[in-house]
């Protein structure tokens, strides 16, 4: 089980902290194109809207959310590109 | 020696900044030069209406000579900025001589003390596969030629499936695709084509507009007019042969006529000069409008990476703040409180069809509370479309 954010090795990390809706979601959509299928990406977001938008988009787009980890003032979303 | 202020771009932001500086600063304090690639000032909101009316592309409501809008103390240089060298405070400009086209381009180098980047956004067709093949079955209204071609396409449209999509965020004037959809619905009804037409509106976000409160207000209006919507649709490619648009999320939507907000990027010269992010938007301080890490360089309007709409309204409010800031800096005056600081202020209209509109007023801290659409806001927008030319570029309001 992957429980601690520090244990997840990602291929790419996008720091979208301080950018607000729809900024972090757009960064994720752009970022996922830049990694290979099977690769992982971390998105750091301080926008409360991401808690709802990011999981919804990941599901819709057929990728996998490996976790949403609350940190100090932001959340770290880890996503695996599935297709 | 007067300070040399160079402003690149003769759109809303650049023009207002130049005029306000020229009015406030004395000749011995500053010399102001505005560089624009065409010397023509375009009122872009006019494009939204062009597909539905028979307006002339030379209309005075659409385009005027930049010179006629500038204070007499602003030098206007018509030329292409090829390179911005912030390390040496230089701007490289190429001009082709209208009198002697055979003599080729003339290069000049200008030196600035303060630089204002009002370089805007550009359409980046190459960013979406299928767009570059040329406008066949897809259309847009993001420049004069595009709006005229769309007008032509609508004039022969027999009914069928019309799809409206947005290539990516950010794009200029966030409400425009929604407004277009409502005006299209009106137009189809007026031409007895609505019952033969399916309209589908696609949007990359989980709702129909960037701002949640506005999306909540608009969604029922779309439903009332039987306009289908599909969210989380980020266009990935257009197959013109099969007439389908595919999304990154894995869906495929067929169309007879596709109206797409094209991909946008920052200006070429910003990318060429290494001043932009991966999309060519300039990293800008959200309050001071100073380009991050660059003293004496400022950015405003569509060119910035700020989380505010790319619209003339944004540029208008930013220009007033920036002019205040520059005047104070040149005179060594202290700014008090929130003077000279941009708070994210934006005011724009959203046409909802049936001669109605609503108004969006907001800033960084407060989201808009759009009033119920009414004739009043529609008329206000129409008034602005005319009054613009007499009040806004001049920096009078």
From TrEMBL, chain A:
Record Pfam families: TusA
Domain UPF0033: 14-38
Family the UniProt entry places it in: Belongs to the sulfur carrier protein TusA family.
Name this protein carries in UniProt: Preprotein translocase subunit TatB
TrEMBL record, chain B:
An annotated Gene Ontology molecular function: oxidoreductase activity
Bilayer-crossing regions: none
Domain (FAD/NAD(P)-binding): residue spans on this chain: 4-317
Superkingdom classification of source: Bacteria
SUPFAM superfamilies with a match to the protein in the record: FAD/NAD(P)-binding domain
Protein's UniProt name: Pyridine nucleotide-disulfide oxidoreductase
Organism name: Thermogemmatispora tikiterensis
Record lineage: Bacteria, Bacillati, Chloroflexota, Ktedonobacteria, Thermogemmatisporales
């Amino acid at each position: 089980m992957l429980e601690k954010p520090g244990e997840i090795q990602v291929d790419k990390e996008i720091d979208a902290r301080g950018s607000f809706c729809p900024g972090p979601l757009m960064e994720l959509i752009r970022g996922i194109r830049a990694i290979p299928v099977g690769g992982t990406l971390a998105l750091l977001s301080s926008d409360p809207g991401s808690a709802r938008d990011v999981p919804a988009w990941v599901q819709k787009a057929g990728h996998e959310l490996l976790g949403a980890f609350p940190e100090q003032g932001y959340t770290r979303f880890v996503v695996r590109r599935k297709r | 020696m007067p300070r040399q202020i160079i402003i690149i771009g003769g759109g809303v932001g650049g023009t207002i900044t130049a005029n306000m500086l020229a009015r406030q600063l004395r000749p011995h304090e500053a010399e102001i030069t505005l560089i624009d690639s065409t010397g023509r000032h375009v009122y872009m909101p006019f494009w939204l209406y062009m597909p539905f009316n028979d307006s002339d592309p030379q209309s005075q409501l659409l385009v005027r000579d930049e010179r006629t809008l500038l204070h007499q103390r602003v030098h206007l240089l018509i030329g292409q900025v090829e390179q911005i060298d912030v390390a040496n405070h230089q701007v490289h400009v190429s001009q082709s001589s209208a009198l002697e086209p055979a003599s080729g381009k003339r290069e000049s180098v200008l030196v600035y003390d303060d630089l204002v980047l009002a370089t805007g956004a550009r359409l980046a067709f190459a960013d979406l596969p299928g767009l570059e093949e040329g406008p066949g079955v897809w259309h847009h209204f993001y420049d004069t030629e595009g709006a005229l071609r769309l007008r032509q396409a609508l004039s022969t449209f027999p009914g069928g499936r019309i799809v409206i999509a947005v290539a990516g965020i950010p794009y200029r004037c966030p409400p425009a695709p929604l407004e277009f959809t409502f005006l299209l619905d009106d137009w189809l009804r007026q031409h007895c084509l609505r019952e033969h037409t399916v309209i589908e509106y696609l949007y990359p976000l989980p709702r129909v507009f960037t701002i949640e409160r506005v999306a909540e207000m608009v969604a029922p209006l779309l439903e009332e007019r039987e306009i289908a919507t599909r969210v989380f649709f980020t266009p990935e490619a257009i197959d013109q042969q099969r007439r389908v648009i595919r999304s990154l999320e894995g869906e495929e939507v067929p169309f007879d006529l596709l109206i797409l907000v094209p991909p946008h990027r920052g200006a070429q010269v910003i990318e060429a000069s290494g001043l932009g992010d991966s999309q060519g938007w300039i990293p800008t301080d959200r309050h001071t409008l100073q380009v991050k890490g660059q003293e004496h360089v400022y950015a405003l309007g569509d060119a910035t990476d700020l989380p505010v709409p790319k619209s003339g309204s944004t540029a208008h409010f930013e220009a007033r703040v920036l002019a205040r800031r520059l005047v104070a800096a040149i005179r060594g005056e202290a700014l008090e409180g929130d003077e000279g600081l941009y708070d994210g202020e934006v005011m724009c209209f959203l046409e909802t069809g049936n001669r109605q509109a609503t108004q969006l007023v907001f800033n960084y801290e407060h989201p808009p509370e759009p009033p119920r659409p009414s004739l009043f806001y529609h008329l206000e927008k129409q008034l602005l479309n005319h009054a613009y030319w007499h009040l806004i570029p001049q920096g009078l309001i």
